Amino acid sequence: YFFLDIGKQTVKPISTECFPVFASANNTDYLLAFDPQKDYNYSTRFPLLDLYVYHLSENSYFQIFEKAADIVISPDGAFILGLDDRSSQWILFDFKSGNQTTINKQGLEKPVFDDNKLFIYFESRDGLYRYDVQKQKLNSFLSTSGKEVSIVSGDSYKVNDLYNIKVSSIDSGKRFIIKAEDKDNKTSNLKYDAKEFREVVGPTEHHIREVRFSNDLTIAYTIEENYNLPPRILVTDSKRHQKQVLCRGNSADRQAFDIKQDIIAYKNSLGTPLKGILYYPVSYDPARKYPMIVHIYQIQSKDANVYNYPKDDGAGFNWRTLIEHGYFVFLPDVVFDDRGTGLSALDCVNSALDALDGFKSIDRKKIGLTGHSMGGYETNFIATHSNRFATYISSSGHSDIVRAYFSYSYDSYMPLLWQFENGQYKMKRSFFEDKALYFDNNPIHFVDRVNAPMLLWTGTKDENVRWDHTMEFYLGLKRSNKEVIALFYPTQEHILEKGSRAITDLNQRTMEWWDYFLKDKKDVEWISKQLKKRLSR
């Protein structure tokens, strides 16, 4: 490292004897210094940094944070925030005074410094908070209480992309915009004007796909949509309290207006409140019984107002296509808890199906389950523990989480330990701390218990979830004499390429699979041929 003084036209070398990595503190007097590998065991996505400050003129160091998970610097370099991983609270360091202050509240996210140096704004799932730097006092804006908020305007850039260090700021003197979403998924865009928030857009039950504002933030242009409303462009004038449609979008999609949807509220066995989206078959007749396809991932209910394009070549799943073919489609929420990823997913799905007991039009003997990536893992695990589904389609999901835990990801270029302990799987402890937890939530350990036909698919260039997890589960099912077919696409990655021959092939085969096992359409040669091979043995 070298320090270039442009005014003096001098270059000063910086020794890496004490610390191997330096980063800008956005300050002409100091640099940030740290050793990212010190005590790093890959249990987190980014290293937890013991952060030091290097004084350029005095050639000295002093520590400001210990085990900081996230670091945000003010635009003038006067302050720096570090998120303490142990307490989940933000610590503010003042470069001028050398003082540290702990902001005593958890759940504060994505801090943004005011350019006027007076305040720090925090997003949260319970409204917008503002910290007064001089008074050392945190307050919430009551008008945003109970809403999940995010700051839309402002300036943010990474100082160091590898270690999650950035500068983030707004100019509250020139107003700024926040997005607020309430518990009913109604979205508003609010303008902070001097002392209070005023609505610019909303609240609306529609999904706002994109928004742009005039320079004075009084006019908003939005692309809005809903599950039964194609995207359209609107203009909102907050001064005149006027809103009008500029373009109605895909007016040819008249079928969208007739789509029927229910939001199903339920709780898992631990009492956690959840929701599921139920879509009805097109031309639904309450006197008939229909098969149903359940799609799983994690929280899906937030997408209840998202438009789904007809004939979109998605990765083997499109609820519009399925309801047009006479299926119910159900998208329940899944959350993870201390029982482990698979067992808690199983509980959520069982609770969601129980919540549909009053729907007599659903044929209980003709229900299929499907999921991709994390949903693929969940489908693999549920297939080994459930007797409620007539068939499964699983794609690009882990089959062996113990092997995956000890694997190296060429997608993120690091070991996958963090993804299981503190990432998406949320196991919250290492394999060595609770081996039984990992074994009990591992699909491959129970593969012989699958009791319904499975279709598996993946791309062999997938570096997100290695393709051989699909091969492993396929071989386990074959060895256990189960009904299974696997599709391997040799040129494809984790998500199949739009418009490719592979995705055209996949969409055709998945629909034929559902029809074969849920509608008894047995004239599908590639399925019958493979199943006959199994029976002949």
User: Biggest sheet: strands, sense, closure?
Assistant: 13 strands, mixed
- Secondary structure: number of strands: 33
Oligomeric state of the chains?
single chain
The rounded distance between the terminal residues' Cα atoms is: 68 Å
Helix content: 10-25%
Low-confidence stretches: none
Structural class comes to alpha+beta
Q: How many distinct helices?
A: 9
Task: Describe the overall structure.
With 537 residues, the protein is of the alpha+beta class. 16% of the residues lie in helices and 37% in strands. Strands 3, 4, 5, 6, 7, 8, 9, 10, 11, 12, 13, 15 and 16 form a 13-stranded mixed beta sheet that branches. Strands 24-25-27-26-28-29-32-33 form an eight-stranded mixed beta sheet, sandwiched between helices. Helix 2 (341-354) crosses helix 3. It is globular.
